[in-house]
Amino acid sequence: MEPRLAELYRGVAVHATADDEHLAALELLCLVMAVDTRLDEAEVAAIREISADWRDDLPPGTPFEQLLGRAVASAQSAVAEGRITDLLDDLDRRISSNVLRRALFSAAREVAGADNEEFASETGLLEDIAVRFS
Prior knowledge:
The chain has helices at 3-9, 18-34, 41-50, 64-80, 84-94, 98-112, 120-133. It is mainly α.
């Protein structure tokens, strides 16, 4: 994990909609992971590491792995059904924290590079994310 990325996540304030923003953030990262149609363990591990600081803010009894599973399913469905833009629009509406938005853009780049390969589908998606979140 890059120290800069860890710094971006340290102190990210997620306010009244914390659980919804956490899920939206996971969905965005999973979308980046799913767009190349390869869900390898390095990408999942990167998402787990990136989200480690958020787990303390989750409501008591909310299992992180359950949220991650929902996020992966949402992202895979959007990719399979050609609804990536719709999902990005939804995530754009659900994430209000500017600090979180910038951190998510940086994290998306980190996740895209976790497999050390560059796919055209990831590049296009990162461009769409940059327009909304950077």
